[in-house]
Amino acid sequence: MAGGSTRLRVAIAECKVCETRESTEVQSHEIEMWVMGDEAQTVWPQKSAQEREIVMQSQYARLLNRPFPGPYYICGPCSDKFEEE
User: Fold this and answer.
1) Which of 82, 79, 84, 62 is nearest to 71 (CA)?
2) What global pTM score does this model have?
3) Cα–Cα distance between 17 and 48 in angstroms, integer?
4) What is the per-residue pLDDT across 15-43, written as a single tens digit (0 to 9) for each?
């Protein structure tokens, strides 16, 4: 990703429960800001919490180079089911 690039990207996350794939569009420079340490709420204030979660649990999570298992995304409907139980 070139610094300052405004190339449109699609972040895709797959629900670990139902395997539904959800996506949201992001700009390359936004991904770069997030990877460099800016909080998702700061980078994407116009996105819903669910959309930000898609980005954070998408293929771009690997760019963080953090030693955690992931991404681990749970879609809204499956999350709601867990809250009901």
Assistant:
1) 62
2) 0.83
3) 21
4) 999 999 999 999 999 999 999 999 999 99
